[in-house]
Design a protein that fits this description.
The chain is built from eleven helices and no strands. The protein has 252 residues and is an all-alpha fold.
Length: 252
């Protein structure tokens, strides 16, 4: 069966189950909103541009925070992969710091930066750069020794050895790590935007909670899921497939 048809049947079944639950009055509508109410909220939110504004603000913050995290995590991961001492010390510390959820950085963000944009970006960076650093380190350390020796035998030294041997060989694993870092950054952003009135998607979730408006909460959740799915499948998934084909990891 065609993959598109399978997905269509699957999501149609979910929608039908949702409608049946509403019609059977299993839960009141203030607990589980009706599909038509969610669709109406989506229509109204995009029509009055409140959803567009929230999406734009959140994606701008995500782009800034994730870019900072990639730079910091990339440099840190490269340094750890290049030094046995840093790997045994700082590398283990990073693993420990990655354990707490993003919400644990909220108190520090408020105390250090106050309720402002910097606090949100701090949480996004802290939520993702640790994962990126660990991924970069692991990706570089997993490059086969045969590749390293072949590069040195061909005269590749210093930056040439890194850019022509290590980086291309580690790209498949590196992209997977960057994807994971993006997912952590997206999660951290939504958490941080619940701090205060910030015009983002997280703030809309809090508004729905404060107003006891489950239709708004469900609508924003659908938008968050749609954005996450789009970046995952339309960007990272295509990049991974291209790299895997080039390296012969999957059938062409």
């Amino acid at each position: 069966m065609n993959k598109l048809l399978k997905n269509a049947i699957f999501y149609a079944a979910i929608a039908a189950t949702w409608v049946i639950i509403i019609r059977l009055h299993v839960w009141p509508t203030y607990v589980v909103p009706a599909p038509r109410d969610v669709l109406q909220t989506l229509h109204d939110g995009f029509k009055d541009h409140s959803f567009w504004i929230a999406i734009r603000v959140s994606l701008r913050r995500l782009a800034i925070g994730y870019s900072i995290a990639v730079v910091i995590g990339g440099v840190l991961g490269l340094a750890i992969a290049s030094s046995r001492f840093l790997d045994d010390t700082l590398g283990r510390l990073l693993i420990g710091l990655q354990s707490p959820p993003s919400a644990c950085w909220l108190p520090l963000a408020i105390l250090w930066f106050g309720l402002n944009e910097s606090a949100i970006l701090f949480v996004v960076v802290m939520g993702s750069f640790l994962s990126i650093a660990i991924s970069v380190k692991s990706s570089l350390q997993q490059v086969p020794n045969a590749f390293r020796m072949a590069g040195r035998n061909l005269g590749a030294q210093g930056w040439r050895h890194f850019f022509y041997i290590l980086l291309p060989a580690s790209l498949p694993h590196l992209v997977s790590g960057l994807k994971q870092g993006w997912a952590f950054a997206w999660h951290a952003l939504i958490t941080a935007e619940m701090l205060y009135i910030s015009l983002g998607l997280g703030q809309l979730l809090m508004t729905g909670r404060d107003l006891n408006d489950m239709s708004l909460v469900a609508s924003v959740l659908l938008i968050i899921i749609a954005i996450g799915w789009s970046v995952e499948y339309l960007l990272f998934r295509n990049i991974e497939r291209t790299l895997h084909r080039r390296w012969g990891l999957v059938p062409a």
